[in-house]
Amino acid sequence: MNTKESLPTYQEALTNLRGNLGEMLPKEALDVFDNDAQNLQKEHQSILKVEVGDKASDFSLSNASDETITLSKLLQKNKVVLVFYRGTWCPYCNLQLAHYQNSLDEIHALGAKLVAISPQTPDESLSIREKNELKFEVLSDNGNIVARNYTTVFKNGDAPVDKMTELGFDFDAHYSDDSRELPFPAVFVINQDGTIAFAKAEGGDYRNRVEVSEIINSLKS
Question: Could you tell me the Gene Ontology terms of the biological process aspect for this record (predicted)?
């Protein structure tokens, strides 16, 4: 199977997801979430905290099995594709991680390891890894300590959290604190010498995500 020709892009998959969400959620609820994304896009124009050529900050975080994973140790053997996402409750995060999973063999063939980070607890990280059958590390960054070195962190608004509660989703149960802070989704490719070779976020609108083709092009270069 030729991956490039047969797999949909994130944007193509997003169109299907939006159709499904329109059937699953009341229009009023979807409007609340969409307005939230649109407002964040207006409020946050500059997302990234580091740029291409900068040195990546080292870190040690727990994975889904509560094992400690250290960036510098990963870099001893491979480049690292670092992905910051919001949580298991976010359909766009699930779609993005599944999208990257589909190209994982090619990422590995280009000498890189994929690592995804969110502020969720290890139990929640395990949940998203099992639910999506992910074959890469999913790490827990409690308090967004690591995320702040790479991407912007913001407090999730009352309107989307209240609407989630009405729909039966307990947002706070996914995290170890009550700050309701989330990282804006962002992707980085880190060379083995610790320099950042690729850095991108699609703005404050968390519905949009970096295409895996951009990551692969960076790894090839």
Answer: cell redox homeostasis; cellular response to oxidative stress
